[in-house]
Amino acid sequence: MAATWTPSSWQSFPAVQQPSWPNDGSLDQALKQISSYPPLVFAGEARSLQNQLAQVCSGNAFLLQAGDCAESFEEFSANNIREKLRVILQMAVVLTYSLGVPTVKVGRMAGQFAKPRSSDTETIGGVEIPSFRGHMVNDPAPVSDARIPAPERLVQAYHQSASTLNLVRAFVKGGFADLSRVHAWTQEFVASSPEGQRYEQVATEIERALRFMRACGVDTEHTSSLHETDVYTSHEALILGYEESLTRQDSLTGGWYDCSAHMLWIGERTRQLDGAHIEFLRGVGNPIGCKIGPTTTVDYVLELCKTLNPAQIPGRLTLISRMGADKVEDSLRPLLRAVRDSGHPVVWACDPMHGNTFTSASGLKTRHFDEILREISGFVNAHRLEGTWPGGIHIELTGDNVTECLGGTDDLTDADLTDRYQTVCDPRLNARQSLDLAFGVAELLRSSGFA
Ligand code: PEP
Ligand code: CO
What we know:
By secondary structure, this protein is α/β, with parallel strands linked by helices. Helix content is about 40%, strand content about 15%. The protein contains twelve helices and 14 strands. It has an eight-stranded parallel β-barrel with strand order 1-2-5-8-9-10-11-14, surrounded by six helices. Strand 1 (about 60-65), helix 3 (about 80-100) and strand 2 form a beta-alpha-beta unit. Helix 3 crosses helix 4 (about 150-175), helix 9 (about 300-310) packs across helix 10 and helix 11 packs parallel to helix 12 (about 430-445). The chain is globular. Cobalt (II) ion binds near residues 69, 354 and 426.
């Protein structure tokens, strides 16, 4: 840890997973340009999210963090953003209705453009080329030239984030998220399915409840929380130069905020206690997350809490466990116990995706719906046994009808994967699988006595 934190103090610490940018001044130029641009989010919004996450901390709300593994420069349209938002809103309705607590909605959206890789290079057709590191860094085409990191991509990522955020704000405040439209959120390909029909039932009951409230004299027309909502943004804070260039001092409090998104998280591969990523994020006022995999020890997690949240502010720190379905219960319980006994307030979220990825016979990376749900089941059970609140889920999904994850009510098989395998990185749940998962999660929580 640096004696004094500054937006650039991370530069004196080892930063893993950084691209080998060209040494021609183009990186500095791109970062200078972004530093001169307006912030994407405001400090006050990050504080509002932190307050909502404090409610999750105390067991009075549930966190739904969801979106692409990696956003794409090519798959960038109003349709794409709207469909993703639609499935997030539908999942949130199912969860809120079933659990009886608010769902805090955070997208892996409007900035999720950089990926950590297990190897710096990959071999394609016998040729070794640099790995793809996300559209913010290089081009996925499997040729060497395309993979050279290009700093102007950072500027493009900024602009795409700004447009995405603009549309998200317009949708959630401009009528799209109005609860009187719960029925209208169902897409055609979902409506015909069993989970779509289950959703329709929930939507009908919500409409009935709204009519009941009006009949009792409640002014639903002028209750803004029924007509609009908040959807916050988040991404992995991986490329630290980019994050630094959007870190600004809040004029109201004097604190520093990373204004590239409301919430930032540290990945499983960059969470070294003496590394640059932790040094950077410990100093910004945003709510932050940290992924923790199956090798996480009690000592590590307690040190992490002390480093990232020394003032023990509820909502400041979300620990996102990604253990794998087989390991989750045993790996998580000692951590839950230790953090609970230390008195550190944290939001516990379950990422059931990254510990359950495998390469199928067809050679494509995939995940099985049943394993995803099984990890959440182990997560919920660990919390039940330790008397802590299973605060939320962290999911990779898309609103499109893709075939990337196996199983679900459609029971997608290996042979189906090649039909519509469109992700630029990890396999995502499609809209039907996502809705199915929301019902599954609600049931798990209810049957464990959490709702
Ligand atoms: C991710 O969230 O896409 C990711 C790379 O996760 P992790 O850091 O947990 O492996
Ligand atoms: Co991923």
